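@channel sequence for tomorrow's demo:
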Amino acid sequence: MGTKQIGVILSIMIVIIACSKDELVPGSLFAGFRKPAHFPELTYNISGNPVTQEAFELGRKLFYEPRLSRNNTISCGSCHIQSSAFTQHGHDVSHGIDDRLGKRNSPPIMNLAWMPAFMWDGGVFDLDLQPIVPITTHEEMDESLANVISKLHAHSAYPALFKKAFGTDQITTANFMKALSQFMIMCVSAESKYDSVVQKIGNAAFTNEEAAGYKLVQQKCGSCHKEPLFTDNSFRNNGIGIGANNDMGRYDITLNEADRYKFKVPSLRNLAYTAPYMHDGRFIRLDAVLDQYSNNIQHTPNLDPVLQNNLALSATEKQQVLAFLNTLNDKSFINNKLLSEQ
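structure tokens (generated this afternoon):
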């Protein structure tokens, strides 16, 4: 084989390797924000913060950046782990800086662009403001925004990344928040079996057990867990009783007596990955949750009206409901390389 032929072969190999690498670069997966066809209109004002690849990638880097915490050890991704649908799997309540314990279970970061309020108590009404809470909370990151911005300015890479994303190397709080929002609103979960069935994709269909469970969820759970997000984002007393730390939920925000022990209705999506359950993580297994609603509703004065009677699910019905809930698990979401730490 001549020198010229070897050169041609080497050139071809270099091109192939380069193309293969390009396919593995997460940025090459970026296709912008796309609203699933069967989802409602957004709540988030995306026109005020249009998603770009540069700002999204900056937001992703910031999401996994431990410099957001006081001692540079805790990132957003520490308590919101992708393989657990961005929850802190296995912990009843969140574990933050210096292994301090919070008072609530870490909620999933999923379909936030459709939420009008955030946190279990709805204390934050704008996604662009939400990161302030974990950053400044003593039990979580225990840092100040001023210190975070100062650390980012001093970092060798961040000024250039902010300039690339927002046209200026001056790192402002507003752009810092917008970048994080761009990452969070891209955390869309809409590719479960359920989504394929309702959109009539291919030959997707429920089994008989799943279909029976679907009807039960619509009949007995649908007033709170509305399709397709499987939450109505309301705040309700669901009859589980007062927790060990006497967390009063929505009342701490509104000081309205009627809001005592009300918490945000969570989505039923991705439950296989997000145990334990409830605002304080008191239930480890889903069958324990179904037992609670079937037999153990606590009748407090402001118990939600739809729960005045136990759901009274039979053993067979519980299995059917569990079968349907499994159709809401989205493996593509928890394995999406675009959302992974780089």
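heads up for whoever presents: The CA atoms of residues 32 and 52 lie 7 Å apart.
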